[in-house]
Amino acid sequence: MDGPTSAQALGKRHIVESLDRAFARLHASSCDILRRATSEQLYEPRGGALSIGESVLRSAAAVEQTFGGITANLWDNPFEWTLPEHLTTPAKVIEHLGEVEAVRVRAFASLTDDSCLTQQIATPSEHSVALIDLLLDTLLRATAYQGYASGKFCFP
Q: Parallel, antiparallel, or unpaired: how do β-strands 128-130 and 120-122 relate?
């Protein structure tokens, strides 16, 4: 290390890196859930709750929508074009999640330091929100959908 300068540089991305790790864990957990599911279980109705596949895809859609909005100003809901008819096996869903993860990784690479998180982002509702608020809301929504997939929450 080069003394205090290197330590200060590391601290500049402390929050960004913490959020990055949280989203990476979300991705890894979704893949783990899918690896335990069979193709038959993937879209099997679960007593009024979303299926495992639908829940994981909605979690990924929240992430993809946010990071697509941040990187390309594309705010459409990806769940609308992510069709279960094309993602028929857990392996195919995992492959799709890999594409979502790549978009997320690119977005985080562009965040140079924690001060980026205070930037205002215009959302489709034409409201501006701080980037950190948008990321935390996305993480919360995506984690909730993942919870439905893992059976830890009941979907109303």
A: antiparallel
Pair 8, 114: CB distance under 8 Å: no
**Is 20 among the domain residues?**
yes
| Short-list 102, 96, 101, 91, CA closest to 79 | 96
Number of domains the chain is built from = 1
Any domain includes 156: no
Kindly report the pTM of this predicted structure: 0.84
The pLDDT > 90 percentage for the chain reads 62
The SS3 of residue 121 is strand
75/108 Cα distance (integer angstroms): 17
Q: Would residue 60 count as lying in a domain?
A: yes
Q: Give domain status of residue 57, yes or no.
A: yes
- Which residues are CB-neighbours of 30 under 8 A, at least 6 positions away? 56, 59, 60, 97, 146, 149
| CA–CA dist 74, 29 (Å, integer) | 26
CB of 37 within 8 A of CB of 48? no
